Amino acid sequence: MLKDSISEQEAEDILYRRELHQVGSGRTYDPLAKPGKNSIVIAAWPNLIGLKKIFYTDFGDSGKLTNPTPALLAKLAVDSARNREVPEGNDGISYLMNANKAGIVTPLSADYEKEILKLTGTASLGQALANIGRR
């Protein structure tokens, strides 16, 4: 949660830089730019869960799964962890581990994790990454 002293533009810039993996770069988000297929769009929900505004990243239609299943998410997560072009920590297994640590739970989280463990033959997400050679 951000303090009231930060402007909405600053909040958008911070989120934008995080999504670009360029924290501290000073890059700014231009909400007027026309989004393309792979554009990062910063959007907001007003008056949600007692907060004035919550900012989030929307990637438009690019890369969205219309009917994700735990099995599909697990396959994509494991594939991303095995892909050496995906920077360490940006794979789907690490993403789920970080979400779990932050207390973020979705309706698919538990089954998604079970499917990863089944695919990798491991007892934990950390072991799954280690078996893949990412840790």
Topology, element by element:
Layout lengths: L7 H13 L20 E8 L2 E8 L11 H13 L9 H10 L7 H12 L4 H8 L3
Antiparallel strand pairs: 1-2
Helix pairs in contact: 2-4, 3-5, 4-5
Describe the model.
There is one protein chain. Helix 2 crosses helix 4 and helix 4 runs parallel beside helix 5. Strand 1 and strand 2 form a beta hairpin. The mean pLDDT is 85. The protein has 135 residues and is an alpha+beta fold. The protein contains five helices and two strands. The chain is globular, with a radius of gyration of 17 Å. 41% of the residues lie in helices and 12% in strands. Strands 1-2 form a two-stranded antiparallel ribbon. The chain folds into two domains: 51 residues, no CATH class; 63 residues, no CATH class.
